[in-house]
Design goal:
218 residues, alpha/beta, elongated
Length: 218
Amino acid sequence: MVAVPVYNTSGERTGQMEIDPDVLGGRVRPALLKQAIVAYLDHQRHYSARTRSRGMVVGSTRKLYRQKGTGRARAGTVRTGIRRGGGVTFAKQGPFPRKVLPRKMRSLARNSAVLAKIQSQDALVVDGFELDEPKTRVMVKLLTEVGAATGCVFATREPDANVYLSGRNIPKTEIRAVNQLTAYEVLRRKKLVFTKPAFEAFCRMAQAGGSGSSDRQG
């Protein structure tokens, strides 16, 4: 079993919660994490670049002048890629292939990233944190008390509008529901902070072999 420290909202350590590393894959898998990160970043690209080839630009197909006897270099049509207004050589057309990871690989990569954070003592649980209304000041104070002010992913059991609005403007801080966590986002920030209900939900999800949102790569 690996232990994750539990803190109260004042930053005092009150205990620990445990999770079986075998539930998280047993070990950290660097090669899989790289695949997950590459796939996640690939899905952030829009792939909207399009250029016109010589067959798509307007212009005559007639040869500009005869091949020999003029003293000039050979020339084809005005639509060639070496002339102003001509088509682009090796034009980008698409469709562009995307890197896709199967659901089980995404789930294992996320679990491996969480295990890496636990082993490096960069994961923690906050007990008793609730907000009745958005309060950025309260959120900043909490992160400062638990040592996560330099950057963290703050995981909640389910989407929480008050927590999200309180933390969205804090630099290097990401607010995510626990089922939305990806390997890239977990590894991107220094600390991984769970609320207690979020960590319990994550343990159940990991034991059941579940993944995050099905349409998110990484």
